[in-house]
Amino acid sequence: MLAFLVRHSLVGMFACALLGFLLPDLSNGLFPFLPYVLFTLMLLTLAGMPMSRLIQRLCQTGIWLYALLHSAFYMAVFFALCWLLGASKELTLAVLGVGATGSLFATPAIVRALGFDALEAMAMTIATTLLLPLALFIPIHFFPYASGSLDFVTYGIRLLVFIAGPILISYLLHRCLPQEKLQRLLLKISPYTILLVFAFPFGLVGSYRLLWDQNISEALMFLGIAVGLVAFFFVVTFLCYRHLGVDISLTAAITSGNRNVLLTYSIAGMLLGPAFLPLAGAMQVPTYLLPVITRRLAKYLNSR
């Protein structure tokens, strides 16, 4: 059964988003436990990467240029679009929060399943995650319509727990345990990490279902915005990296399209306003449909 889930993981993640929508009570029941799942997945993903090679990738200028594209560029574009379209303050803040969000820590596993360079995706993911505190600080601190004020102590603790914590523990594991023993342990555990990945689309989409039950037209608007955001991330990033070849451009594109909205919510919470969580839930459908589309697109581009 586990082998079947691993083999069909890309379709399974999208199916979990649909199941979460159909079973909102179970989805909302799982939601409070998602931060623990997130921490575990981040730790296991980092521990399974060759640290020396990963650090070398992180020292490359191109990785940080990608991170700036991933957050700063898109935040500037979305702020301009929201202003021109007259979007509400709550929706603007939610969209900017998504723009600040780093990539999913499940992205390297998704990229590996597509046959691309998981190490490159991991470096991009870490770089965007490390930029997240600064990118997130801008909208929730400087925009007057952010609900509440920024508690720097709480903000700092959450950053330490959800970002510094997994990185530090992973580093200590690599330093303190023999590499052969660590790799054997990770080899036994790694197949089960796919179950952790399935938890995110299932547990996050429940907030969107609540909006759907209250106001279908508003829910459809949020779904349209979510699809537009994911498509914009993917297409623009793909075009920016197209000259580097199919593998690199699709790796960058899917890393940009996969946004770790749960980490952003875990760090900032209600400071991102009431529209962020429904938008985050709506994004689960296009986010987890994206790997399936990318696989077909890769086959098409490589055949040409």
Automatic annotation (TrEMBL):
InterPro entries, per the entry: Na+/solute_symporter_sf
Gene3D superfamilies xref list: 1.20.1530.20
Keywords carried by this UniProt record: Membrane, Transmembrane, Transmembrane helix
Residue ranges of the TM segments: 5-23, 29-51, 63-86, 92-111, 123-143, 155-173, 185-208, 220-241, 262-281
This protein's name: BASS family bile acid:Na+ symporter
Gene source species: Marinomonas ostreistagni
